[in-house]
Design brief:
The complex is a heterodimer of chains A (321) and B (317). Chain A is mostly helical. Chain A is built from 14 helices and no strands. The longest helix of chain A has 33 residues, at 31-63. Chain B folds into two domains: 1-31, no CATH class; 82-309, MetI-like fold (Orthogonal Bundle). Chain B has 15 helices and two strands. Classes of the chains: A mainly alpha (321), B mainly alpha (317).
Chain lengths: 321, 317
């Protein structure tokens, strides 16, 4: 393991690099260094396999005939590959189909969960970005009484663990009669999140204000400047933030689990969890569950395949939850 | 600065020939800097008051009451806190949570550093970075379910392999000793790519000539890692440690999907205990008191870390 931590500068990239300045014979590149480079690649590939392995097992199970789960437990490829599991969780299989009767399959309405997830994500993210951008612009550019105090309060709010706020927020949503509604699930995120405000404020502050000032001189009001200059100039930051916020909302579990338990509004994470809890015949309906999880992973896979660089670069702004 | 002050004169923007009409109410609203600012922050401020500021104080108030959501809350003063202090379940939950953080953080940080160093040295490949980041993009629930399936004692791939090797099947999630470390492993799997990415970004910011100089001075790989990389990525290290420790203290999703706090309370972490009190037995007052205690713990832990790691300073430049 001692050889893994060689730094970039430590190993000459070419023989020319390794040539001493006095023009004498090149220093032989140590076999130790070459070995460590080779070993490093092995470690990287190993971690890539560790990352993708469990996902592949899920795909394999989803493609397997549920009757073969025991016999094929240790195989890496599905035995008797079939799309039947996907078809039945999506609801493409006729309820009278004899294959549905013979085993203890759980019941899940994947389409409904998908629709709920999309609705929750849109409702939580679109207004959040819009209102946070407006607030961020005010904090970054406009002077008003109380700006520092309010901004400090926003900052302090990020210190509060979310579970502390979940209890009073749950009661508030309940008192509003919004339990098991989209607006109840989305409300705490819809008007602002401190992270969105900080992120955009930082982005706005990092660009020069000349353009905005010349627009002011030309008589444009602040609203014109915001919509015509600030938003277009920061398209890319807004896209990054939208992606992060959408991913957070899409993967959110605790809050939708508290206020959106009814089947009609369950988002995908909550629906998959209650599908698991159905415990049909003692053990969960694994092949159906894995079909659901694979369908749930597809949006992520699409995002990574088409916008890999953008995703990787924007995730450095995120935290841990 | 002087420029932005110009439209404050409500009467006449430059070149305007009609100063009297333009000083209307709406004109002031559109051009007066501070009025505009309030319009801009109004929706966010409303959201902040309703879902952050007010609930924070309300949580504190609820923690001083006895309330099951059905009756009117009864003010009982700090009784919940003294009850909490004498509650063995609370201390057990704290112990479980701290253990979980201790399993989780060192391994996650070391793996993240290792991957980041290797990535920085060997590969710029965006594909490789995407692959190790992929688990982080999958929701906690799906990750937990996949691992629950992989480690299923009867049918899971992991246990089938263990059987094949000759170790035999291990009930990872239902063994009292193994359940918590297993949940930590699931979490490490999901977060190692993110940790690596954050460290990688930190390492990229270190100027290459620092390493060059160290090499000319004859520093070996270990010297340059401990002498250059580690000190110079300290701001990243602080960020990663503070955020990942805060996140680990609040672990919930994985437990809600797999062990539900069991077996025999071996995975009943503090947030799960809060959930049980607040949303299963509806003891809102006690749950709030517990959550306030969690807040206090996290604040102390964060302050101590900031102090130890001297987060404000950078060794660079």
């Amino acid at each position: 393991m001692a050889k893994l931590d060689l730094k970039t500068a430590d190993v000459p990239k070419t023989r020319e690099d390794a040539r001493p300045p006095d023009g004498s014979a090149p220093i032989p590149i140590h076999s130790r260094a070459r070995f460590s480079g080779w070993f490093g690649y092995v470690v990287l590939v190993l971690f890539a396999i560790i990352s993708l392995g469990p996902i592949w097992i899920a795909v394999k199970t989803a493609l397997s005939d549920s009757g073969t789960l025991f016999t094929s437990a240790s195989s890496l490829l599905p035995q008797h590959p079939t799309l039947f599991n996907f078809e039945r969780v999506i609801g493409l299989v006729n309820p009278a189909d004899p294959r549905l009767q013979q085993t203890s399959f759980g019941k899940v309405d994947f389409y409904l969960a998908l629709k709920n997830s999309v609705a929750f994500t849109l409702l939580a993210v679109v207004p959040q970005i819009a209102f946070s951008a407006m607030a961020a612009y005010a904090f970054a550019r406009l002077r008003f009484y109380g700006r520092r105090v309010i901004f400090f309060l926003f900052l302090a709010a990020t210190m509060i663990p979310s579970v502390v706020l979940f209890i009073p927020n749950f009661i508030l949503i309940k008192d509003l009669g919004w339990l098991n509604t989209y607006q109840g699930m989305a409300a705490p995120y819809a008007l602002m999140t401190p992270f969105a405000v900080f992120f955009l404020r930082q982005m706005f502050l990092s660009t020069p204000r000349e353009l905005e000032e010349s627009a002011l001189i030309d008589g444009a009001c602040y609203f014109t400047i915001f919509f015509r200059i600030v938003l277009p100039v920061h398209r890319s930051a807004l896209a990054t933030l939208s992606m992060l916020a959408a991913m957070n909302a899409w993967n959110d579990f605790f809050w939708p689990f508290l206020v959106g338990r009814d089947r009609s509004v369950q988002v995908m994470a909550v629906a998959i969890n209650s599908f698991r809890a159905q415990q049909a015949g003692g053990t969960p309906d694994w092949s159906g569950l894995m079909a659901c999880t694979v369908l749930g992973i597809i949006p992520v896979a699409v995002l990574l395949i088409f916008f890999g660089r953008k995703v990787v670069e924007s995730l450095q702004y995120t935290g841990f939850r | 600065m002087s420029v932005s002050a110009q439209p404050r004169a409500p009467a006449s923007p430059p070149g305007s020939g009609m100063p009297v009409r333009r000083s209307s109410f709406f004109h002031v609203l559109r051009f007066r800097e501070s009025y505009c600012a309030w319009i801009f922050i109004a929706p966010a401020l409303l959201g902040f008051f309703t879902f952050y500021l007010m609930p924070a104080f309300r949580a504190l108030y609820i923690s001083l009451t006895d309330w099951n959501l059905l009756r009117v809350p009864k003010f009982i003063g700090p009784t919940n806190f003294s009850k909490l202090w004498n509650d063995p379940n609370f201390w057990n939950a704290m112990k479980v949570t701290v253990l979980y953080v201790l399993y989780n953080i060192p391994i996650q940080t070391v793996i993240g550093l290792l991957l980041a160093v290797l990535l920085a040295r060997l590969s710029r490949s965006i594909i490789l970075r995407s692959v190790i980041l992929a688990p982080y993009l999958i929701s906690n629930v799906i990750v937990a379910i996949i691992w629950f399936w992989m480690l299923d004692p009867l049918l899971g791939f992991g246990n089938a392999v263990l059987q094949w090797i000759g170790i035999g099947r291990i009930p990872f999630f239902s063994d009292q000793q193994l359940a918590l470390p297993t949940i930590a492993v699931v979490n490490i799997w999901r977060h190692m790519g993110l940790t690596a990415l954050l460290f990688y970004t930190g390492i990229q910011a270190i100027p290459k000539d620092v390493y060059e100089a160290a090499r000319i001075e004859g520093a070996g790989p270990w010297r340059s890692f401990f002498g250059i990389t580690l000190p110079l990525i300290r701001p990243t290290m602080v960020f990663v440690l503070v955020t990942s420790i805060i996140g680990s203290f609040q672990v919930f999703d994985t437990i809600a999907v797999t062990t539900l706090g069991g077996p025999n309370y071996a995975t009943r972490t503090i947030v799960w205990y809060i959930y049980e009190n607040g949303f299963e037995t509806f003891r809102m007052g006690y749950a709030s008191a517990l959550s306030c205690a969690l807040f206090l713990c996290l604040a102390i832990v964060t302050l101590v870390q900031m102090r130890i790691l001297r987060s404000g300073q950078s060794d660079l430049g």
